[in-house]
């Protein structure tokens, strides 16, 4: 529908002519570039935002994702054609603090409806740098996570707190409600459908929360080990403790000191599994697992859906995560 049609600047037109408007993918379906689509055009920063837009918008929205399937979201650098897409869109949905180039591009864009998911719920800090217990005594922390969320695994600043809110179904539902209200205001002709779709999505997220609560209720340990310190909110929600491997980069080899610390934690807390994710190498996890006699498995941060994902959408992958956690934590 493109309710606020704009003229692309001469610079952007030149860039588009040179690069061409490529097709982007939102969720698991092909999407054309934002423009004259006859729908409410939404540009989403990466998969969890695109998923919200598609579920809430339904048939009334056309969603494009700035992050391609299989691309590590933190690595994204906005191209000239994507800048032009933003100029043509009716709304932008993003999560400030996760992708600096997206934050900058949307901040400079003339688009009227800018939805920052981080502003629709509360952000928190989750611990300090992995391995900090060596400086603060022998007992490892019981906080959810030891990764310094001031920076993500690629050194990007997270001064506003841990941005991985979508991995907590309760916080993700809060974001969904905020997105729904904004869609209703920006495209009032379809407000009733946006309201209905939002309510259905929130209901599904509440059901997912209940599955995690009941599924993890009877467990033998609270501790799980990951390469990527993305699960602080999930750990906090369900009373777990996330232990991240050295640094915040999933590809970084763990230090000898950190391996010894994790060996001690594994022995004391009955840790059985080192988790890795689908969008990065499993080398670090396998290195640690080999040194500690643990198994490896996938705990997916749901930053994108690919052929390697254990499911075709957010809910399927999150339920696969629950199954993996239940096994690792000895849940009955």
In short:
The chain is α/β, with parallel strands linked by helices and 332 residues long. It has ten helices and ten strands. The protein has helices at residues 10-19, 47-57, 80-88, 100-108, 169-186, 191-215, 232-237, 256-269, 283-292, 314-329; strands spanning 24-26, 29-31, 40-44, 61-65, 91-94, 113-116, 223-226, 241-244, 273-276, 295-298.
Q: What would the principal axes of the Cα set say about the shape?
A: globular
Number of strands: 10
Structure classification: alpha/beta
Strand arrangement in the largest pleated sheet: 4-3-5-6
Quaternary structure? single chain
| Intertermini distance | 50 Å
Mean of all residue-level pLDDT scores: 81
Q: Order of SSEs, N→C?
A: HEEEHEHEHEHHEHEHEHEH
The helical percent reads 25-40%
Report the radius of gyration as a whole number of Å. 20 Å
Strand content: 5-15%
State the helix count. Answer: 10
* Unreliably modeled segments: 2-34, 127-158
Largest sheet: 4 strands, parallel
